[in-house]
UniProtKB/TrEMBL annotation:
Gene3D superfamilies: NAD(P)-binding Rossmann-like Domain, UDP-galactose 4-epimerase, domain 1. GO terms for molecular function: UDP-glucose 4-epimerase activity. Its cofactor is NAD(+). Its EC number is 5.1.3.-. This is UDP-glucose 4-epimerase. Keywords: Carbohydrate metabolism, Isomerase, NAD. It comes from Dillenia turbinata. It comes from the Eukaryota. GO terms for biological process: galactose metabolic process. Belongs to the NAD(P)-dependent epimerase/dehydratase family. Residues 59-380 form the NAD(P)-binding domain. InterPro entries: NAD(P)-bd_dom, NAD(P)-bd_dom_sf, UDP_G4E. Pathway: Carbohydrate metabolism; galactose metabolism.
């Protein structure tokens, strides 16, 4: 009996403790609601969710990546409102943090973590936000890798562009600036490459981008959307003020671009440079490419956005018009870094083409755009960032 009475007493005490906790939780919840209601943003829609006269809201897909982050920086500097969508598969959240640090005022910049392969997530983004324009940078973008993982490239580039386009059409977004590539031309007989040069891509990366372009063009024939397709040549350099740079994942080094490899060699992260192919029909046997500075490239995007016209498609090469060979590139890199980089010459890499450089006269005449940076200047700004960021954005 005593024992029973003791159990009963403990049970009652436990119940009263539980009720006390519930009351405390309710009181705290009420307090939070009252504080939240009292906050200046309560009840007001997010500035990203409505169009505002005098403010252009641009969705930058892939804005955590190399080119996308530089584009977002330029747009923010020019007073655009920016939403970055990225799945961080390749980009750097730290690049977004740099931008957030620079443009922290409400309504300037938001970051949304999402995969463009997820159509439901993409539609939710378009339902909850009101965009004036989309700059679609997000993509996997390594020629060599595309020959090994073709399906991934078609899905990520072609299929995701279709998803973006459908969402834009469904939500009445008026302007698309599309990141295409000179890889869509393949290996043309004649140089320089104009926008009329036949597009005969020779690797899955170039083919996936060409298919995405075709989808956009077919859609445009019966749409009022303003479209600009920019076909970039090889992008190098970084923000001249040193805020952003190119910091690909270490695991991508092997597929990486020449500038990254040169700097890695200069920093002795890798023993030297492997130049793949010395028997191309070019002036010194190595591949010739047209290296365009990222600051010049984002300037072309801003001009494309300003000149985009409803129901019209503009297609432009974005390059310097000048080809540099891999050997010339390496010499410029040695000069800028001051390091005598070791070079090993190997056989060709599958999917590469001998010589590619642009004729940029169309973009000069129609959008009043020209490249300003020389190869050496671009390498100098990029090297400056590298030296200040030995571990990429982690410094
Ligand atoms: N770098 C060049 O030399 C070059 C040349 C021609 C064209 N391009 C094009 O420019 C664009 C940007 O290239 P980059 O060099 O900045 O590459 P990057 O890898 O630095 O950036 C791409 C960004 O897209 C994101 N991304 C990829 N797949 C995604 C997905 N499914 N959902 C959401 N985000 C995704 C990545 O996380 C990354 O942040 C690409 O479309 C590329 O094809 C680049």
């Amino acid at each position: 009996m005593l024992m029973w009475a003791g159990t009963n007493y403990l049970e009652m005490k436990r119940k009263s403790n539980v009720s006390g906790k519930i009351i405390l939780a309710l009181a705290l919840t009420m307090l939070c609601i009252m504080l939240f209601k009292g906050s200046p943003s309560f009840g007001r829609p997010s500035p990203f969710s409505r169009l505002e006269s005098g403010v252009t809201h641009v969705l930058v897909t892939g804005g955590a990546g190399y080119i996308g982050s530089h584009a977002a920086l330029r747009l923010l500097k020019d007073s655009y409102r920016v939403t970055i969508v990225d799945n961080l598969s390749r980009g750097n959240m730290d690049a977004v943090k740099v931008l957030q640090g620079q443009f922290s005022e409400p309504g300037r910049l938001q970051f949304i973590f999402a995969d463009l392969g997820d159509a439901k997530a993409v539609n939710k983004i378009f339902s909850e936000n009101a965009f004036d324009a989309v700059m679609h940078f997000a993509a996997v973008a390594y020629v060599g890798e595309s020959t090994l993982e073709a399906l991934r490239y078609y899905h990520n580039i072609t299929s995701n562009t279709l998803t973006i386009l459908e969402a834009m059409a469904a939500h009445g977004v008026k302007t698309l600036i599309y990141s295409s590539t000179c890889a869509t031309y393949g290996e043309p007989d004649k140089m320089p490459i104009t926008e009329e040069t036949p597009q005969v891509p020779i690797n899955p990366y170039g083919k996936a981008k060409k298919m995405a372009e075709d989808i956009i063009l077919d859609f445009s024939r019966n749409s009022k959307m303003a479209v600009m397709i920019l076909r970039y040549f090889n992008v190098i350099g970084s923000d001249p003020e040193g805020r952003l740079g190119e910091a690909p994942r270490p695991e991508l080094r092997e597929h990486g671009r020449i500038s990254g490899a040169c700097f890695d060699a200069a920093r002795r992260i890798i023993p030297g440079l492997k130049v793949k192919g010395t028997d191309y029909k070019t002036r010194d046997g190595t591949c010739v490419r047209d290296y365009i500075d990222v600051t010049d490239l984002v300037d072309a995007h801003v001009k494309a956005l300003a000149n985009a016209k409803p129901g019209k498609v503009g297609i432009y090469n974005v390059g310097t018009g000048k080809g540099s060979s891999v050997k010339e590139f390496v010499e410029a890199c040695k000069k800028v870094t001051g390091v005598d980089i070791k070079v090993e010459y190997l056989d060709r890499r599958p999917g590469d083409y001998a010589e590619v450089y642009s004729d940029p006269s169309k973009i000069r005449l129609e959008l009043n755009w020209t490249a300003k940076y020389t190869l050496e200047e671009s390498l100098r700004t990029a090297w400056k960032w590298q030296k200040a960021h030995w571990n990429g954005y982690r410094i």
